[in-house]
Amino acid sequence: MGERARAHVYVSGRVQGVFFRYATSQEAVRRGVGGWVKNLPDERVEAVFEGPRTAVDEMIAWCNHGPPYAGVDGVDVSWEEPRGESGFAIL
Q1: Of 4, 6, 14, 21, which is the active-site residue?
Q2: What is the residue extent of each domain of the chain?
Q3: DSSP readout, 31-68?
Q4: CB-CB contact of 33 with 55 (8 Å)
Q5: Cβ distance 70 to 48 under 8 Å?
Q6: Are 70 and 28 in contact (CB under 8 A)?
Q7: Active-site residue, selected from the candidate residues 4, 6, 30, 39
Q8: Which end of the chain is more exposed for a tag (fewer CB within 10 A), N or C?
Q9: Is 21 a catalytic residue?
Q10: What is the pTM of this model?
Q11: What is the pLDDT along the chain (91 residues), one digit of tens a residue?
C-alpha cells in the first residue's frame, strides 16, 4: 500500500464557507484520503489529511490552488504520525 502520511493543514484566503469545505472533502474522497475539514473563526480553513503519502501530497498541492473561487493566499502544513484515519468529514 505504500508509506502512509498525515498532514495538518491551515488554508488562508477567501476560503471561508461551505463550498470550499465540500470541494475539499470531495477531492479527498476521490483521492482516497481520510481526515476532516472545518472553518475557523479567523476565516482560515483547518484540515487533516491521512492516507498514502502521494495522495496526501496531492491534497496539499490541491489546497494551494483550490477551486477557482477560493482565493487561497497560503497553506501552512505540519506533518504528524499517521493514526489510521479512514473516511472524510466536514466539521
Answers
A1: 21
A2: 6-90
A3: HT-EEEEEE-TTS-EEEEEEEEHHHHHHHHHHHHH-SG
A4: yes
A5: no
A6: no
A7: 39
A8: N
A9: yes
A10: 0.91
A11: 579 999 999 999 877 677 888 999 999 999 999 999 999 998 899 999 999 999 999 999 999 887 777 788 899 999 999 999 999 999 9
